[in-house]
Write a structure and sequence with these properties.
Layout (H helix, E strand, L loop, with lengths): L11 H20 L7 H32 L1 E2 L11 E2 L28 E2 L6 E4 L2 E6 L2 E6 L2 E8 L11 E2 L2 E5 L2 E9 L5 E8 L2 E4 L1 E4 L6 E9 L12 E6 L4 E5 L1
Parallel strand pairs: 3-13
Antiparallel strand pairs: 1-2, 4-5, 5-6, 6-7, 8-10, 9-10, 10-14, 11-12, 11-15, 13-14, 15-16
Length: about 250
């Protein structure tokens, strides 16, 4: 029993034609030799692409690092306002002024010492009030007593191994003439202060050469009205060159 052909079945002529075309294409395909693949060029191109990507990434990173250094935000800009930038100003450094060396401190002035006088040399405190020394003791005159007076340092009334001060005084015409002998102190005598009813009076010292162990002090002061000129209210202090007390009278 013969089956009828459907429209999907190719005709016998068409099938034979298709077979011939297939064979012809196969033969042509065998005759074509494919060119070799450009592998080296592909690798070079790939390397160039990778290098460009790396360069772009590094450039972007460096730009992010340099932005804080190249831009300075001016203070006082409001929040949300566009930032105003300016390059950082160069810092000028002024050279430090030269340091002047500190001058050395001036040495302190030496403490005063008694005036050294020759035996019998007269020293005038004020006109009429004169003093001079000999090995035996103190000699002096005052305006009211022009005849010389004498105070011995060798008659035994003064023990020169002990420290002490004597006082002789006279008053005339509102002035008071003070003097005395100092002796036996430690160190070198330097100055004398006399506390009187008129205030503190600073006197002067005289000595013979050769460190005799005694000397004479003298001072002149005004009398305070209403006070007994012979009422002793004095304190006499002879200081040494070290600032201590050489001898004192109370």
């Amino acid at each position: 029993m013969n089956h009828p052909r459907t429209e999907a079945d190719p005709a016998p002529g068409h099938a034979a034609e298709a077979e011939r075309l297939r064979r012809a294409l196969t033969e042509v395909a065998y005759d074509i030799t494919p060119s070799p693949l450009p592998l080296a060029a592909v690798e070079r191109q790939g390397r160039r692409i990778r290098l460009r990507r790396r360069t772009a990434v590094l450039g972007a990173g460096c730009g992010l690092l340099l932005v804080p250094l190249a831009v300075v935000v001016l203070p006082g800009t409001e929040s949300g306002a566009p930032g105003v930038t300016s390059p950082a100003a160069p810092v000028s450094v002024s050279p430090a002024p030269p340091v002047s060396p500190t001058p050395p401190a001036s040495p302190a002035a030496p403490a005063p010492t008694p005036r050294i006088v020759a035996s019998g040399e007269h020293v005038t405190a004020v006109p009429g009030f004169e003093l001079w020394l000999t090995a035996e003791g103190k000699h002096w005159t005052t305006p009211s007593s022009p005849d010389p007076q004498f105070r011995s340092v060798v008659d035994g009334n003064i023990v020169r191994s002990d420290s002490g001060v004597t006082l002789q005084e006279e008053s005339e015409n509102g002035r008071r003439y003070l003097s005395g002998v100092y002796y036996g102190g430690k160190g070198t005598a330097s100055s004398v202060e006399v506390e009187t009813v008129a205030g503190t009076v600073r006197g002067k010292l005289i000595e013979l050469p050769g460190d005799p162990g005694w000397g004479v002090w003298y001072a002149v002061t005004d009398l305070k009205p209403g006070k007994d000129p012979f009422h002793l209210e004095n304190q006499i202090t002879v200081h040494n060159t070290e600032g201590g007390i050489y001898a004192q009278w109370r």
